[in-house]
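User: Hello! My lab partner asked me to get a predicted holo structure for this protein. The small molecule is adenosine-5'-triphosphate, SMILES included with the sequence. Please write out the structure tokens.
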Amino acid sequence: MLEIKDLTVHYETADGVVEAVNNVSLNLEKGQVLGLVGETGAGKTTIALSIMNLLPKPPAHIIQGQVLLDGEDVLTKNKHELRKIRGKKISMVFQDPMTALNPVQSVGAQIAEVIRLHDKSLSSALVEQRAVQMLETVGIPGTRYNDFPHQFSGGMKQRVVIAIALACEPEMIIADEPTTALDVTIQAQVLELMKKLQKDFGTAMLLITHDFGVVADICNQCAVIYAGEIVESGTVAHIFDNPTHPYTIGLFNSLPSLDKDVKRLKPIGGMVADPTDLPAYCSFYDRCDVRTDACRKENPLLKELEPGHFVKCIHTAVQGEDEDHGID
Ligand SMILES: Nc1ncnc2c1ncn2[C@@H]1O[C@H](COP(=O)(O)OP(=O)(O)OP(=O)(O)O)[C@@H](O)[C@H]1O
Ligand SMILES: [Mg+2]
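Assistant: Hello! Below are the structure tokens for the protein in complex with adenosine-5'-triphosphate.
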């Protein structure tokens, strides 16, 4: 359904060229949920904005690549064509609900507007009825239709954003850290809601997060991104049962968990790669536990370790045989 092919996006800044996304390919099939995981600055939002063709240009430049939606390249569409795609086919839920909500319009009217835009044949009464239904679907009483965003809590605002995203029954939702701005209990509620809606509506979802717990909870597929490159991808079982790229292993080791000795938790050493100055070889080299001289010879390609499980590391064979994934 969604196929990103060899996407490379740079930003031109006063400090140089930021190589934000480098040769990224991703696939999302109907009804599937793909988790995109990586540290801050890894290029996750840039990928999301590329899919919606919403990158700020300049400073962003798409150097190469395609974003195919049902076989058609979003990146070559004009404004009019894009408007049709956004909402009907894809909608987006951003990290901060306030960026998505209009502060001076009631939440009901904002949901209604989306419904009206995508089905102009509906009567006003029907549109309003559908908008009320959407509010209730996300757990907000229909009686709050005429309330304004500032009258809602953060979690409720994000529910409204989700209601807007779902209002025209898109085939796909791009959710960019949809719960990061919320506190932990509300996070769990919003995630539960997204999970339920995803199941009920069969919506495909690209879920951007830096939280593996969220991936385990909702996703079928997972891609790990480092310095603008996918370093590992596969099913959630591949990534959780057999994490193989040293970066993925590092992310797991840095997680607190109940069955691990807390004293042995370790953050990944070294500094995140500088996207204005990426090496021609493996960009994880400086932080890697298993690096060798060979790692500086070239930038490895993603290779398929087992069917559907891809890893971008020349030491994968060694890692794959390591039963406890280097936790010690
Ligand atoms: N408008 C912009 N102008 C210049 N550089 C940008 C712009 N937007 C993003 N970048 C840079 O591109 C790189 C990738 O940023 P991006 O926002 O895609 O990361 P991210 O993975 O979403 O991070 P986070 O987890 O913090 O949201 C970063 O180095 C960032 O500083
Ligand atoms: Mg981001």
